Amino acid sequence: MTIFEYTKSKNVRTARIFGFPLYVQTKDVLTKNKSQTFCGGMFSTTFKDFAGNKEKLFKIFNLTFFKITDDGFNKTDYLFNIKIRKRQIKNIFFNKYKKFIPAKYDDIYILNANSGEIYLFLTYILKALLSKNNSKTPLLIATKKYHLEMLKVIAPEIDCILIEKIKPAVGEYCFSINKQRFFVIFPYTHYLTLEKNIKNSTGTEYHYFKYMLEKLNLEPDNIRETPIKIPESQEIKILQKASSTGLNIENFVFISPEAATCKLLPEYFWKDLIKQFRQKGLDVFVNLADNKVNLGDSDYKTCNLTYIEAFGLAAKSKKIISLRSGLTEFLMQTNVPMVVFYTEFQNRAPSQSMNINQIINNYGLSQIPHNKTNTIEEYAFLEAEYADMLKIAQNISVSAG
Questions:
Q1: Alpha-helical regions (H) of 249-353
Q2: pLDDT single digits (tens) 1-53
Q3: 115: part of which helix (H) or strand (E)?
Q4: How are strands ordered across the β-sheet holding 174-177?
Q5: Whole-structure pTM value
Q6: Of these four, 153, 161, 320, 342, which has the most CB atoms within 10 Å of its CB?
Q7: How far from each other are the two terminal CA atoms of the chain, in whole angstroms?
Q8: 159-195 pLDDT tens trace
């Protein structure tokens, strides 16, 4: 018998000693609910998230002796179901991170979103919001490293710091502590409410960009596009990276097949598409940031690119073909013709899922007020119409060679 054994799958992790389950963790990828048991179940914890209301239970022999609840506004502790302490989450947040936030800053903007929303916020909303709030000395808190990349080319003049994995998550859009104001872009409940509204709608009334403006009390007339400006030194680095792959920088298409939210397209679609482009005499660059897609021995070029590098390289391509992802908003400013395919969202419970029309209506790029010198075509990917999908993607008016 093995003395120590550790196994790991998508949902379950187990550690055993002489076959005895010392530790077991189970996690639901759809709801993010999680449970842990120790010493064969003698001690256990469970974590549940009820639409933004979080609850963590601590048990001994399946008897709950301690509970913590978190609704985004208050955190409450219970001992044997008796409330013993209640704290405001904004105060917990401030006391934990105040050492990183000097008092010289009057307004602090916490970037609590993924790449698409952050790009839109920085490009269209930030300046209008700073003006509306009369922010004199603002500070931006990036919560992901690529936020810093975006800031360098969209809003380099504004001070920023990086604090990853901020906890606890504040559920308020705006709060004040001492003489400083804090703006959360955006609280967790923002996304939950938005998806719930979209699921119960048939039109575009809950388009995610309009919803951002609404929650920040901004009108479309208040906003202007801030152009992306890549430093010349960065442009040179991008060209050097591309050249190292052997890519024909003068005659190529840029393919982006990965996404965190949309379900991935079948890999044979991308393989067929690459083959057709190569037959036309066009080179192909495939942006593979997370290695979620296996293209086998297809004839394409690739290398690791940052967000800025992906933008700079895509801007030199003849055409962009992408699965809908946060990168697609960023690529809108390349002024390169772009085809974007939509699929249903992954990792959604049946009660939370949206149909493809609701997704295109409310997450489509056509309603974002970008500079429309480039054409952006958007399609729901339908395997039943595979030949048409392939034709749409590979159609290119620029002659090869």
A1: 267-279, 307-314, 326-331
A2: 678 888 988 789 999 888 888 999 998 876 778 999 999 889 999 998 877 78
A3: helix 115-120
A4: 159-162, 138-142, 107-111, 180-185, 174-177
A5: 0.89
A6: 320
A7: 65
A8: 999 999 898 889 999 999 999 999 999 998 899 899 9
